[in-house]
């Protein structure tokens, strides 16, 4: 049955590409523009630096110091604090990438990796504030409530997932008892001595693995951008939206918000944009649905994470369950914190539907910086890919010699 469903689905997708070539091309270009202008140049530095930090033993140093915090609350080693911080700063799918890397190094066990990956993947603040709140809703105050709800939901998921599995590494526990600076420095030195690659080799490997991961991410972004468009053209999104609208009606949500919600389940950027354009829904309803899809992350992100985890023994099911939980938590926190956070900020700063604050207006330094990043993003991508091809060529040449 599974084989038949997969075969039929792929056949329908292939036929749709033939019948809707122009629409598929436009959707593909949209995904490509997002990847090479924003995703690639913004994630690449985090990926490369993280690989260097792991190779030089800095992550192990941080892990020893953070053991007393991460072990009692989340039942993961202290290095999980590094993964959490990097995942929060750089966004999807960094948490999965770094968790898989630590699992390959043998720093964490399988169960610990499944707990860790469940709450270290999140939207970065720039996306929530810049793209969603300001770009789509034209409302910077909304960014605060979305961000607070999103990250509180993340913490709740981490606290719940600590009960996942029964395995606990006694070796990691013994290491966690030594939390002095001296013990951390010793762990740093031992890790560096164990990984005896020269700096040039370490840097080349970091660039190589980071670009490979980002190429995979780009492929999924383009693919799901096309799939989302095809589903809309085939009226499948509309049919699913009709089912969801029945559920939303029980919570007094307007019917028009169901189709943007379905689109958001596949790709959060498009979903957030469509939700912001819904007429007839209150801003609170729009914020709750946006928080829900930001927490769930979208099937495009799920596919990226599944591809990364497939290279290890980390199971995908706990991550999927955690995304559902975070979507629910984030939506509830948006409702609970609406008056104490958003309404108070709106009264102090500006009316609900007023123009964004000066810092986000055209001509401000934030706007100019964002515009500059989108202008140089393609150049950074092209230069880095050229460097990657050159490194790959040198290594292949050495192997043949």
Taking the sheet with the most strands, its summary is: none
* Strand/helix succession: HHHHHHHHHHHHHHHHHHH
Supply the number of structural domains: 1
Q: What is the average of the pLDDT values?
A: 82
**Which geometry do the CA atoms define?**
globular
Strand content: under 5%
Structural class designation: mainly alpha
Binned, the helix content reads over 70%
By DSSP, the count of extended strands is: 0
* H/I helix tally: 19
Quaternary organisation: single chain
Distance between the termini: 50 Å
Return Rg in Å. 22 Å
Uncertain segments: 170-177, 350-366
Please render the helix and strand layout as text:
Layout: H1 2-19, H2 21-55, H3 58-74, H4 79-90, H5 94-105, H6 110-119, H7 125-136, H8 140-161, H9 170-176, H10 181-194, H11 199-233, H12 236-249, H13 258-266, H14 268-276, H15 283-296, H16 299-309, H17 317-336, H18 338-349, H19 365-400
